[in-house]
Structure formats: structure tokens, C-alpha cells
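Readers of this paper often ask what the protein records in our data store actually look like. An entry from our holdings is shown next, in its original layout:
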Amino acid sequence: MFGDLFEEDYSSVSNDHYGKGKKLKTKALEPPAPREFTNLSGIRNQGGTCYLNSLLQTLHFTPEFREALFSLGPEELGSLEDKDKPDAKVRIIPLQLQRLFAQLLLLDQEAASTTDLTDSFGWTSDEEMRQHDVQELNRILFSALETSLVGTSGHDLINRLYHGTIVNQIVCKECKNVSEKQEDFLDLTVAVRNVSGLEDALWNMYVEEEVFDYDNLYHCGTCDRLVKAAKSAKLRKLPPFLTFSLLRFNFDFVKCERYKETSCYTFPLRINLKPFCEQSELDDLEYMYDLFSVIIHKGGCYGGHYHVYIKDVDHLGNWQFQEDKSNPDVNLEDLQNEEIDDPLMILKAVLLQEESNLIPVDQLGQKLLKKIGISWNKKYRKQYGPLRKFLQLHSQIFLLSSDESTVSLLKDCSLQTESDIRRNDQQLLKTLTSEPPGLNDRPSCPHWFDVNDSQVQPIKEEDIEQQFQGKESAYMLFYRKSQLQRPPEARANPRYRVPCHLLNEMDAANIELQIKRAECDSTNNNFELHLHLGPYYHFFNGALHPVVSQTESMWDLTFDKRKTLGDLRQSIFQLLEFWEGDMVLSVAKFVPAGLHVYQTLDGDHLTLCEIEIADGEDIFVWNGVEVGGIQIPAGSDCEPLLLNVLHPATSSEEEQCQQLIDSPYVFPSNAEIGSVFTACAIPDGVILVNSAESVGEESWTTIPKEDLKKTFREQGLRNGSSILIQDSNDGNSLLTKRGKWITSVNEVDWLQVKNLCQLDSEEEQVKISATLNTVVFDIRIKAIKELKLMKELAEDSCLRPIDRDGKLLCPVPDNYTLKEAELKMGSSLGLCPGKAPTSSQLFLFFAVGSDVQPGMEMEIIVEETISVRDCLKVMLEKSGLSGDAWHLRKMDWCYEAGEALWEEDAALKELMLSSGDTLLLIEGKLPPLGFLKVPIWWYQPRGTLHHWKSHQDQTNCTFSQGGVWRANSIQDAPSDAHAEVSLRYLGDVEISEDATLGELKSQAMTLPSFSEFSIPSPAFLRAWTVESRRPGRLLRVHYQRLREYKLGQRTEICLEPLQKEENLGPQHVLLRTQMRLPGKRAYALPVDLVWDTARGWTAGSLRHRVADFYSLPVEKIEIAKYLPEKFEWLPVPSWNQQITKRKKKKKQDNLQGAPYHLKDGDTIGIKNLLVEDDDDFSTVRDDIGREKQKAFALGRKKRKPFVCGAATSPLLQRCLPAPVDQKLLSPSTSGASDSTGPTLLLQVLARFLVSARCGHGLRALLCHEQRGRSIAGQASALVTRSVARPPRLARTWPHHRCQPADTLAPTLEPRHHLYTKID
């Protein structure tokens, strides 16, 4: 319990165990919320630390403890920055307490975190989730703090504030000899059982005597015999702060179980300890203590929750109730009356109401309580002393009797007439009687708060009485001496006595919190809108469709949802400078038929939240009437429905035959069902609707003729519903009494089973009749009989589905139905030897290496509980391989090696592997868990020395002898000179994820290939991630751990040499700036510029930074970002410029957004307007690049289409190296050889497969064409055989998903280089 906090040796001073056993804490995505109206901060619960939070809040609201801790400076305690240094002497616990108290005082957050503090305790996550006893924690924490402060000026902090002594005495009745024993205490433990309250318990402990007599005599040392004696205990020394621990938990020896005392146990707000002390000669004020904290336990003896009632001594919080805030003007004049707090006026008013003006002093206190609702002791004693003493001090007004038992007013003491006194005092008493006690904010009114972990709420003083008894009752009481007075400057001043270094830290943290909250507020209130522009759409087949492509017709706009619809309309007007006429904004949605327009947005004064615009909403921008000259139906009533209409086919003699044609049709929801006849050009007939609920079932219901005038929506039809049109005179269909339709058309109700057991059989395949509920076992047995095979196969065979490529898939369990096995009617199954896997087994494919040809995988059946290590051994044994330098990877959807199976001891079931998955045996041992194997590259930006260029190959982006990686252009495509990148492979580094970036650089410098570079230290290296064969993300912080960068197992790092050390912060952006040469269309060599974006990513901020860097007036420069893929320069406007160019998503007030997307490493061109005043940023090289792009695009358009079925796809035409005669590709051409066309086609398919990285999609495309089906396997094998990838480039290839031809075309740009060698 409490982890290392129990250890009281000096090890808690150092940081040897700092953070030991801790798990990584997940950082919050959003900044913490600011403080509530109380202006006090709570403490977050780590899972079970409510007891710790309550104790820490009590210590925090003990100003003397807090300020004594603050008085210890770094010269005594050390610094947290030095905690990792081995020789540094850092006292972590007091430093973390200081920091926590400063956060509670000054940091503007709803709740502080105790993570760093519990780390200093040496607690693990298990300790943070386990609840302990707060009384025990109080003693252990004080002990650990005393140990940590040994050797400092605060070594006696705990003793000075909390240490007291008790003296136990035994007095001999014979010789009066006194035997004493003194005990020290930091807190007093008092009984609860059979005791009415705290004062009663103290009376039993320190007033009553225990008598030794009769059979229980005491042996007196002086008398040297057994005598009668009396034993007693007294408080000898009282500390400034007194803590009482209540023994709420006891043990029932009868029931043998623990229980909690929930009986009533009272405790006063102010207590006089004089009767319980050894010395009672001092004034009563010396023994007065005021309650200032009550730790409360809610629950039973085996669990519960802690919170604390705390008195705000320094008035740091806002003690105002919600009802006070709602009625701030109630009795305002009365509450501001200064006479309310004058006890002299109140006592005079009470005595004037008595006929004889004479009253006993005891009754005077009672009448005062009755009139104002609060006793003298609670309201005035702290400031004015006891009531009798107050009356004695004002003898010119009050007359006390000789025995001080009665009091009266002197007749000649009035300062004004008696009538005036009575009138004023009656008004005063009326005010006091009507005023609820405890609701004002006067100095004499105590401010109490309920601090419940993160929540802080004000409470009234009388609420404390609710904690006397019950399951939620007081558990610890904290009192402070009444004479302890706080200085006036500490009142409502949270910065009082806080050290300067903590003040600066908290001020900086508050600024950072404000920035994060502003960013988070902007992020949370921004959402994406998809703008669909009317001029780019046409109305076709009942819905809107793009004229060109979805990309061209839809623009994404990021907008603040707190702005109004009018602001959105104005922004779109500025975005579309070509727009003329009215602009109507309507909510649109994609339906299966296309894009449909729903309601029109009205109310320009309403915010987007008020009109309920959602994130990702589709907005159609049009004139509100027509699109392309066609009036557009809008609204949910006319939503288009995509229906499947089945109707009999018509022969050439216009006779209907038995074959059914399934055609999709689009109808408005409010159209009549009878309009189906018109759409299908059928004069008359019977309409039937498939009313089956589940997929795969059919239940046709006829629609009566009188219902044909109902709409599709009224009939309950949805998208995808099926409609059958049957001739009313057709005899091939029957209408039953229930309205069900039974068709005579032959449906597929069979499965084809092939004999793959390599046994002689009369039949190679048979058709087995089945339904969706047929069990696979029955099909297998029936197939064995019809194939006339041996009966022994019934015990040792299985059925395996066969895909379109002829590959055998995972065996189907015998106990599955066809529906459960997801087998469709008409599917092909293979009858194979061997049993199917059981429910606890997995059927896996596996292969050796990553260059796997389809159909060449091996198969294995293993238990799903087998570990990865054992599975690897079995696969190696079956493959005939040996050694332990192998690991497993799961094949991904691109038929490539995916993520490795890192956890070798984990079961396959735990890794979510399922039957049918393919695993790859890859040579090479994985790094240990928590380690990274990082390839290191050397990066030299353009314009600096390239002394290894002579070693590079002349082929497209391949490795040379020197390991240089150059990203050049493909043949027939323009080169990308501005984005030219040289990367040289240095080697691999295996390093822990907990290592820092600096340690990675240091380890990289030990590689043999690094020896030819003269780098003085890791600080002279800049690290980038490698993305798409180029530097991607900049890794900034030298001491940040690699785990925090979230690099992943496939990350590669490139290192760039620096001329001097740099220390980039999170707000810094690194840009490559180039000054334009006057009179030339060229630029000087790039120079690195660091831009601080702390004040925003605005164009004005960047322009000022560039102007300062080049010592030019800001109004005399123009800057532009270079877009290497387009060979274009995008000008960055000045602050007051309004950008309204076409296709700009919004105002350019944030360079992080579109169209700039500014990031580290971008090139910025600078033009000096003092020597050159034009708008052209381009260079001669840019002109050449654009011309080559145009020529390349034009050449692709001129290529003729193929005649071959698969080759006619426009998706494949882009892969041709040059225009080719169609006859060479047509298999039916007599003038070509049998192999020329298919061979050239295979080369084209190979080029496409490599560029698109989508083998499965290509095979599917080929299988859709009858002529291409015979060469699909050849194409796949040729591509697998012809692709020769460099060993270090496999990870950085661009991956493309299978897409339609019109959407994949933009991905085949010249910048995507092909690593292909066509035979």
C-alpha cells in the first residue's frame, strides 16, 4: 500500500525511482477547462485517489504550511530539471508539492493533476486505482516529507506546525508521588463508539481519571508496595494546528466483521481545550481552536468516497451561491449597512427592549441568538472576545453587577435620544431578523467550500452539521489556533508568498492554456461543408450528376458554425468570382440515384448552428430554379428512388419470352406506381413487389389495380426494392390465395462440386441440388456418392470454395449451412482430401518471402490458441527452413507484406487472425518489443555539395553503387527539378522507443557509412521523416522521446547537416527561402529561415519575418510559395489583401489551410520590389516543366483505344508506352501473330499493375471481360516476375486503392515514378 511512500530512508530525496513502474499516461486531446465561478481549482481523480485529493486540499488551504513550503528555494531543494542527472540532489516530493500548490493557486484550470506528485511517491498505476485510508496517508506523508527536508531550513516544518505532547500521570494515593510519561503526537485519535461528540471524547481521555484499587492496585516505587492510585492524561503542548482522527471503523467480535460507526457525533466550530490541558493559567484565547477542514467519508467499511469541507481562510475563492447570483439586488442596502457588524449597537437594542433594562448575562446571549439567528461565540467572539469581557470593556455603556451575573444600560450613556435609539435599533433588528445567516460576504462570515475532487462548490456553515452522522459523515477534523491571524495583504491574493520562479511558470502556463483554448475553440467550431456548384452539374435520370467528375464539381469549405448564413453566402460569393445573379443555398444529400436537393436555407441572420447545419453537410449552390435549363424538383417528397424492375424480355417478333430482364429505374417518391408501365414501355400487366424482409429471400405480393395510383412512398418502397411486371394473361405464373407469386422461371438452386482428390472418377464435377439451409456435410456426402468415390473419403475430405481465379479458399466446416458459410447458389466447390478445421482451429495460407505469386501459397491448420512463436516453428518446418532469424507478417489487401506479428507469445486468436488469412515468412529477426529498426538516410538539399552524384544510376529512381536514391521523372514526363531530392542510404539503427531524438542521431553517427562526413555533434544534424521518397515531417525537440513522435515500425529517417546548432520549438516553422535575382528569371541558392508562428499563421506575420531576415521594408517585398508538382508559384498576399481567385476555399488568413498548406521545408520565393517590380515569379525551368507536362498530357489523349475486351478500358490506355496499332492487340486479327497481341497487352497490364499497385482490382477487371479471362493469370504472373523493387524503397511506394477508371486517372501523374522493367 502507498508504494515507495512507506520507505522512510533518504532515497525519497533522489530520483532513482522517479516514475518507476508507471504506465504511459494518455495526453488529453483538449486543454483543461477553466475554473468555475468559485475561482478555486479542484484535483483530478486518478481512479482511486480521492483520499489523497482531500488531504492535499486541506494542506493547501493551510496557509502557514503552504507558505513555509514556498519559503524553501531551489538552492535547498534543487530543481526538477536536474532530476535526471545522476549526481544531482533533488528533493522531488517537496518540489512537486510546491508546484501543485502553485497550480491550485494560480493556474486557470478546473482541476489540477497529481500525476507528477504520485510519480515522485513511486506509485504505480495500480496504486492510483486503489483506495486507502486517509488517516494513515496523513502520517506517512508527513513522515516522507520530514525525511525529504532533512538538511534544509524546513527540517522542522512538520514539528513546528503539527507537533504536540501528551503527559500521562499516575499519582500514588499514599505518598502522592507522581509518575510521568510524555508522548508526542501529530494527530489525536478519538473514539466515536458510545460517545456523543468530540468534546465528550476529549473529556473521557483527558479529564476523567482511571482509579487503581481493590483487585487492580498500582505498585508504587516510592512506597515499594501495591497501593491505590489514579491515572490521568493531559495535553501538555498544543500545536498551532490540531488534527483529530475519528475512529469510525470498528470490529464486531461477535459477528467477526468490520463495521462503520454512523451514530451522531458532534463537533464544534470553535473548541476551548483549556479543560483538557495540563497548564490552565493562560488566557482562554490561548486554548481556542477554530475548525477549518472536515474530511468526509461516504460509504461503508470496505469502500467509499472521500471529499472535504474546507474553510477559505484567505478568502481566495468566490463564495457566492447560485441564488445570490440570480438575485444580486435583494436587500442590497441592508447588507451594506456597517451597523450590522457593530455588537455595541445590537446589545443596546436588545437591552432597550427589556422593561427594566436589566437582564442576566446568560439570558442576554440567548436573546441575542434569538434576534439575529447566530450566537455571540460564533459571530463576535473571535474578534471581540467573550461576552462578559466585552461588557467590562464598555463600562461607560453597560453596568455589570458585582458578581457579573446581570447587566443593564447606564441611564446617562446614550449619545442620542432614547427615541432615536429605539427607532434605529428596531430598524436594525428588523434587518438582522430578515437576513439569512451565512449568505453575506463580510469578513466575519466564514467562507466554506465543498471540495469533491474536480468539483468545488460553496456551502453554508450550518451544512457541516449534516456530517455529524450517517453513511456520509466526518472522518478527520482539522483545527487551527484562533490567535493565528493572517496579514491583510494575503487576503484574496493568491500570489502572496509564491516564489518568483513558480509565478513565472504559472504565468507562462496560463498564456499557453489561453492559446490552446483559443485553438481548440476554433477547431471545435469549424466544420467542413461540401459545396456542389450548379453550373458543374446536369440533371439526368431523376437526379443531379457531375458534368465532368466529382472532384471538379465539389469544393470543400472550412467554416465557423457560429457565423450566420449570410456570412456563409458572402464567403461563397467571394470564392466564386464568376457567379452572376441570385445565389440560393440548399441542403443536398447523396442517394443511390445521385445528388438530390432538399430544403432551401433561409434566414441570413441565423447562425449555422441554429439552422442545424451538420459537419460534412452537402450544400448545393444554384439559382433556386433550374440547372442546365431543366427545372429541378426539390424536397423530400420527390426524393428519387432507385428500383430494380424485372420484366419479361421481348423477342424480335415482339413476343414475350420466359427470360426476365433486371433493369434499374429511377422514380420520384411521389410518382404513381402505375408510371412503371410507361417507363418500361409496357402497355399493361400485373405489378408485384418483393415484400421479403431478409436478403436472399423472396416473397412477391401483387398490387391491386386500384392501388396503382398510390405513390411509391405510400406503398412503402425504398431504394433497392424490386418490382416484377408480369403479363396478366401469362399462364406461367400462379397467384395463390395469399397473394404469393410462384414463378415458373428456372432459378439457380444448385452447387457445382469438382473432384480434387486426385482419384479416378467417372465424373470430374457434379451439380448438387441445395437450398440456403442445406448443411455442408450433406452436400459433401451427396457429392462423394454422385462422383462414385470411395466411402472412406467421407471421413477424410472437405469442401473448399473456388474463386474466379481458380484458387482454393478456406475449407467450409461441415456443420455450417450454406447461409452461414455465405455461399451463393451456383458457386463452385472443390472436394479436397483432409478434414476441415474445427471451431477451435484456424486454416492459414503461408508463403516464404514477400514476392509471392498467387496460388503458390502453402496451407496449414493450427489451433487458434497457438502462439506466434510456435506457429512460426511449424511453418518453418513445413517449408524445410531452419534457423531463428525469421518472423511473420500478415499479408495485406494489396497482396503485400503488412504489419509484423510482434508479440511472439501472443495467441493467434488474440491477434484477431481468422481462417483464410495469409502469413508471410520473412527473413530477419524482429527487434525486441519496444524497439525500432530505423533506416537512416543522408539528405543534402539542392544548392549544396552533392559529392556522391557520380555514383548514381541513369535508370529511373534506382539504387546506385553508392546507395544514392534520386527521384527523377519517368520517361515521356517532365522532370521535377525544383523538388529534386538526393538521399543516400547509410544503414539501419535499432533503438528503443524510449530513447530521445538526440540519442538516435548519436547512434546514427556510429554507422560505418557516416564516417566520411565531418559532423561535430548530433546538434549539427536536422532529422526528417521520409515520406514518398522525400523529407516529410521535421522532428524538432532534441530531448523528446521517439515514442512521443509516434513514428511506427516502418518509419525511415533522413539526416540533414547544419552549419550551426539549432533549437526549434513547437511554434517554429522551417522554410527554404530563395531571393529572386534582379533582371533574371532565376533565384539564388536557398537559405533556411525560421518563422515563429506563436502569434498566428498569418500572411502578415510571415511577410514581416521575411522582411526582417533580408533587411528589407515589408511593403517592398512580395513572397510566393513554390508548388513543384505544378511548376507554379502561389503569391502570398499582404495582410489587407482580399483573395477572391477561383477555387480558393476561404479568405487566406491562415497559411496552414488551403491553398497554401504551408509546412516545414516548403520553398518561399522573395522578390525585392526596389529593384524589380513585376508579378512574375516563374523561371525558365518552370516554363520548360509546364510545356513538358502539356505535351505529356496531349500525348496521352491522342492514343487510340484498344480493341481487345480488357484493353478497351480507358483505365489501361494510360499505361501504353506509345501509340500502338489496335490490330496488334486484337486476338481476332489475322495479320498478327498469336503471341504479339497478348504479349504487348501483358506488358501494358504489367505497367498498369505496378503504377496502380492494385493487382486484385486488375484481375477483377479482366474477369469481367470474356476475352481477357484467359490471360488474367498470365498477367498476374508476369507482373510479379517483372517487378524488381529496390530493397529499401518498398515502404515508400504510393499505395492506390482499387478505384473506377475516371477517379484513378489523376493518380497516374508523371510524378509517380514506375519501378518497372518490361521484358
In short: The CA atoms of residues 436 and 478 lie 27 Å apart. The chain has a mean pLDDT of 77.
